[in-house]
Each structure stands twice: as C-alpha cells, then as structure tokens.
TrEMBL record:
Listed InterPro entries: LysR_HTH_N, LysR_subst-bd, WH-like_DNA-bd_sf, WH_DNA-bd_sf
Entry-linked CDD domains: PBP2_LTTR_aromatics_like
PANTHER family recorded: HCA OPERON TRANSCRIPTIONAL ACTIVATOR HCAR, TRANSCRIPTIONAL DUAL REGULATOR HCAR-RELATED
Span of the signal peptide: none
Keyword Transcription regulation: yes
Gene Ontology molecular-function annotations: DNA binding; DNA-binding transcription factor activity
UniProt protein name: DNA-binding transcriptional LysR family regulator
C-alpha cells in the first residue's frame, strides 16, 4: 500500500491510531476505483452481448455468372431498411467462398452450387431461366426462341467443372439428356471468357440472361430456349450455426423478396 501511496503522491491511510483507517483522499480513491470497476464490468457485458447477439456488418461473397440484378435488389432493400448495417461485398469463386465461410472470414455466399461440406448449409433463394448465348449474325437468330436440340447442333463453350460460380453441374444436368453428343470446343472458368469466345464465333454458350444483358455486349445476342426453359437455382450459403441478428434479417429479406409464399425455409 505504501508503494501505491508513493506512486499517487497522496496519503491513503491514517496509521496514527491503533487501527489503520482511510484518509479522506483514500475514501475518494476507493469510490473512484469502485466506479471504474463498475464501468469496466458494464463494458465487458456490452462486448459479450455484442459478440453474441449483434454484429454490425455482414461479409457477403458472390460468384461470377450470377444474376447480379437480384443481388442488387436485395442489397438496396437492406440499405433502405437497415442503413446502419455495413455490408461488405466480395467476388470470390465457389471454392474460396466455402473456405471463407468455414474460417469465419465470410458470413454469406451466393453461388450456383449447393455442394457444400459439413458445417455449411445452402438454401435456394431464386431461380433464373437458362438462355442460349449466340454470336451476332448466327443462323439460330432466325428463332425468337431457340429449340435446345437446334442449339446442340453447333459447337459449345461451356462452364468448366471448376468454374468459380459452380454452374457446371446445373448446366450439365440440362444437357445430359441430349440425343446427340455435345460438340464441346472449350470449357471456361468465367462468364467473361465464355462471352468473349462466343462473340468471336468459337461456339454457343449457356448462361442466365439477366446477367449477360447487363453487360451490353454488341458481339452477342441472348435468346430464350423454346418451350419451358430449364431453371438455374442460385443458393445462399452460410454456416449451419445460429445466424446473428443482422444475418437473420438479411435472410428474411431474401426469402420475402424472391421465394414464393409458403416456401420459406426455417432459419
């Protein structure tokens, strides 16, 4: 105690009587210490509550080849309804999304694959019709809606099995029932490369129309497939643990915005 008194430069204890008592300065010091300890306890409690209940930002990753207008709609609604929530958006391939989610570097991912590993969940949030991407001045442009069998008569530029968006498996499921062998000229890992090869006349491609149309490329044309078009599902990826409150609200907006009524999964 004498070391503390020496440090503070004040006398905290009266040792002149048979019992050691606090001086007036000591009583003031004791009251301030109790106030500081109470403040620290409140700060610790608040920090624990923030860690358990509220997270002030969301880290969201999207893959190449996704329908960006849907994501833009969802982000705009989040900004309108919860402007204090900071949302950070990254573009990452599917495999890197899975690693980021596992390592708690991401909160949410959007991809065209639900092939997630243990500890993660993937729920479908919207679907988009698959369209055929055709070079300008191509004979298939005589069709307002292109029959799939007609498209498969031409060389194709398709998603690589390791494509960053995970689109390969969904498109392969559409094409595997073809009556003729596919004329595959290349497999690419990004939408940009596919559109470049299609525009150069190497072959036809398949993609989500709303994504391609936002790029306004003059060397390609998007045509819907005839009949009932195949639908590609976009999945929201997250950890299987209980989501934070901001994530719960974001998930609810996604379900309200895109899922048919009655199809909302449990949180």
């Amino acid at each position: 105690m004498r070391n503390l008194e020496a440090t503070l430069g004040v006398q905290l204890f009266d040792r002149s009587a048979h019992q050691t008592r606090l001086t007036w300065a000591g009583q003031v010091f004791l009251g301030e210490c109790r106030r500081v300890l109470a403040t620290v306890e409140q700060a610790v409690s608040a920090a624990k509550a923030a860690a358990q209940v509220y997270q002030g930002y969301l880290r969201i990753a999207i893959c190449d080849s996704l329908a960006q207008p849907h994501i833009a709609t969802l982000l705009a609604r989040s900004r309108e309804e919860e402007p204090e929530l900071e949302i950070r958006v990254f573009e990452l391939p599917f495999a890197q999304q899975l690693k980021g989610l596992h390592n708690d570097l991401l909160d949410i991912g959007f991809a065209l694959s639900d092939a997630v590993s243990e500890g993660l969940v993937a729920e479908p949030v919207w679907t988009d019709p698959l369209s055929v991407i055709v070079p300008v001045r191509h004979p298939l442009l005589a069709h307002a809606e292109v029959p799939l069998d007609e498209a498969l008569k031409f060389p194709l530029v398709l998603c690589h099995p390791d494509a960053g968006s995970g689109c390969h498996h969904q498109i392969q499921a559409v094409l595997q029932g073809a009556s003729k062998p596919l004329k595959l000229v290349d497999q690419v890992t990004s939408l940009g490369v596919m559109l470049t090869l299609v525009g150069a006349g190497y072959g036809l491609g398949f993609a989500i129309a709303s994504q391609v149309q936002t790029l306004n490329r003059p060397d390609i044309t998007v045509r819907p497939l005839a009949g009932t078009p195949p639908m590609l599902s976009t999945y929201l990826l997250r950890r299987s643990a209980d989501p934070s409150e901001p994530m719960k609200r974001f998930l609810q907006r996604a379900r309200e915005e895109f899922l048919p009524k009655g199809d909302e999964p449990a949180s």
